[in-house]
Amino acid sequence: MPGVVEIARFASNEAYRSDPAVINPSLEILSRAKGVQAIFHGIQVEDEETVYIVIIWDRVEDHKALIDDQDAYTKLRTNLAKCGSTEHHILHVPLLPDPLAQLRAPLTEFSFMTLKPGQSAQELGDFMNVVLEKSGTSLKVRYGTSWGKTVEKDDLFFLVMGWNSLQDHQKNIEENEENITLTAQLLKLVDFKLTHVELQEYRLQ
Q: Which Gene3D superfamilies did the record assign (predicted)?
């Protein structure tokens, strides 16, 4: 670690919402794949429906190797279908620094950030260096910050922060002057969608 983080999301069904352990047979298959470092899953707080599965791989190629394993991948997809929609949205991101603290936090914030026309990845990178520097100090992000550019899209970036609770984050947004200032600067660079997820870690064997 760090490696490449896969973020997969899909609409859950009542079976998963009633008992998230229904996903465990799928995660067991994932856990046996080469290059898997850690696995997390959970429901989005805002809509109480979208499932997030977060997998840290050694390399993107390790995920591709699982997809090419027809027997294992068919079993994985069959089992996942018991948890909800078979339409999955998947991204891969080399997140830095190591995102484990954020993923293990009581509440994980995910932000999908798309560069605005005329803005550059270099400008966003310079801005994010400031955010990382201030994350644990004046920004008071409880469990730190990680970010990176998605493998799939050059203009799409992914930000991860860890908090104690939704109220903890909301208070920070409303009362932390540094956060208010930096958020205003960020909105000049990107359009972003923010969500929160209470993740559970699947213990690898």
A: 3.30.70.100
**What's the count of helices (H) and strands (E) in the chain, helices before strands?**
8, 8
Asked if residue 176 and residue 128 are part of one domain, the reply reads yes
Q: Which residue in 196, 115, 111 sits closest to 158, CA to CA?
A: 111
Are residues 161 and 78 part of one domain?
A: no
Each residue's pLDDT tens digit, 123-154: 999 999 999 999 989 889 999 999 999 999 99
Residue 35's region, left for phi above 0, alpha for psi from -120 to 50, else beta, is: left
What's the pTM value of the predicted model, to 2 decimals? 0.94
Which pLDDT belongs to residue 1? 58
Give the CATH number, domain containing residue 164.
3.30.70.100
Please answer whether residues 190 and 118 qualify as being in contact, where contact means their C-beta atoms are separated by less than 8 angstroms: no
